[in-house]
Amino acid sequence: MKKILMCAAVALVTYAVVAQGQEGHPGHPGQPPGHGGAEHFEQYCSGCHGSDGISGAEHIPNLAGQKKEYIALQLRDFRDKKRPGTVMPAMAANLQDSHIEGIAAFVSSLGCGR
Question: Contact, 3 vs 49, CB < 8 A?
């Protein structure tokens, strides 16, 4: 229960920051799409999915080792309201394509975890 409340709190704070158009990390203008995947993962995802992509909570999926294309598709579907979810549509609502590509690339580089 504590993990659920913590994830919800992280999600709400992150959503509030993103909704205001503020980034938690400085931008990297002129760099190719997908750059900063680790930073964006840390900012948007690690609070619930773990910094290593292993969530530690049975009801939150592990992301480590997922294919880049799969993660990108899921994030776009959450963002575009094509896939329902509890917290994820709000978390993905303001992600740019470059954020999604970076997060997906980073997640796919994590390996399968434990």
Answer: no
Q: Name residues whose C-beta falls within 8 Å of residue 111's C-beta, 6 or more positions apart in sequence.
A: 64, 65
Q: Which residue has the higher pLDDT, 2 or 82?
A: 82
- What's the pLDDT at 36? 83
Q: Cα separation of 1 and 19, whole Å?
A: 27
What's the token pair of residue 20? 């205001």
**pTM for this prediction:** 0.68
Q: Give the CATH class of 2-22+33-108.
A: mainly alpha
Nearest Cα to 103, choosing from 43, 48, 41, 57?
41
pLDDT of residue 2: 54
Residue type, 21: G
- What ranges do the domains of the chain cover? 2-22+33-108
Confidence of residue 35 (pLDDT cuts 50, 70, 90): low
Picking from 22, 4, 14, the residue whose alpha carbon sits closest to that of residue 45 is 14
